[in-house]
Amino acid sequence: MIFNWFKKKQKLEDFPDFWQNYAKSFEEKPPEDISEVRFVVFDTETTGFDFEQDRILSIGAIAVKNKRIEIKDNFEIYLDQEKFNPETVKIHGIIQNEKFDKLSEIEALKKFLEYIQNSVLVAHHARFDVKMVNNALARHGLPKLKNKVLDTAILYKSTRIATNLIDRDKVYSLDEIAEVYNIDLTDRHTAAGDAYITAIIFMKLLSRLKNTNSYLIKKIKNRK
């Protein structure tokens, strides 16, 4: 019988070049000022909400740096997946035979890692998107994402608790927060569209956080 604790721990050089390049980007010392931090706001569209059974259909992302949304620094890919759920098509509109240029899952992950590098990831209800990506990585024998992650749902609560203008137990959807900030939802439920909406929300939250630099630097350094 082979026990897990006898298995040889994998070294960086055991992984593909694209993972090594991604991992090495974290050797850089993180900035001390928020204006120098590259945030990547991202979203995934999936075949459903089951972490084990469902798959990523598309990933959309856009960069934020120095309190600006970098429109030209964006990312959008579609994945070729065998799994198909007609129920979720009602939400994201991605159908099985849609004429998008699609990548294999491993090629999509490669491009996503090349895009994000050591940036701080931002997502709404980030646990879902991060876990879907991590599960995809695991299917190809790769480790979990190394990036620090911020969740706009949590940040939103942080900006409202001080004034008691929030239900502490409520889980606020992207639509509800967008409505508070009067953000157009025309491109809702596409990965790229939701990433852009989340980026606008993130920008508004940055302007409402007290001592933004020290608060976010602390969150980034302390969060795994």
From TrEMBL:
SUPFAM superfamilies for the chain: Ribonuclease H-like
Spell out the molecular function terms from Gene Ontology. Answer: exonuclease activity
Looking at the record, the residues that make up the Exonuclease domain are 38-211
Does the entry feature the keyword Hydrolase, yes or no? Answer: yes
Answer yes or no on keyword Plastid. no
Q: What range does the record give for the signal peptide?
A: none
Gene3D superfamilies, sorted:
Ribonuclease H-like superfamily/Ribonuclease H (3.30.420.10)
> Could you tell me the keywords of this UniProt record?
Exonuclease, Hydrolase, Nuclease
InterPro entries tied to this protein: DnaQ, Ribonucl_H, RNaseH-like_sf, RNaseH_sf
Give the transmembrane region(s). none
| Taxonomy, superkingdom | Bacteria
Under the heading PANTHER family, the entry gives: DNA POLYMERASE III SUBUNIT EPSILON (PTHR30231), PROTEIN NEN2 (PTHR30231:SF4)
Q: What is this protein called?
A: 3'-5' exonuclease
Task: Provide the species name.
Answer: Gramella jeungdoensis
